[in-house]
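Entry 14. Ran structure prediction on the chain below.
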Amino acid sequence: MNMEFNADNPFVQALAVSTTLAIFMIGVAMGIMRLASTGSPSVPLPAILLIFAVIFIAGSVYFENRGADYLGSMIGGAVASFVATFSATAFFTGIKYAMEGGISVLGWEQIISALAVCMVASMLIIRTLQHKLQSAY
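Output, structure tokens:
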């Protein structure tokens, strides 16, 4: 029973991707908690605007290249940039909250439980997306 643990191992890949996505989910959740309690993000406004602008442009070009008309590409770019900007802002706010003692407020048991639940959820999301993308082509 020789199991190599390298980047080509599908078990390691699945564990790494689901753990990374789960940590991102927990960071976003903690960021939303912090935003709800303080009302202000930890990310400076110029950085938020820059993230929004870059993703808006990239999203608009992406949707235009996929066949969307002018209005559709602009709306698609705006929606994509809003979601990505909100997620990034919430994540970095959550990381700052965690580093300032937010984990001790919530407790390690809740964080580990949330990590486990998010790992399972992220694996379900990843597999569903892979299945849908494979069936689309």
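The mean pLDDT is 87. Will compare against last week's run tomorrow.
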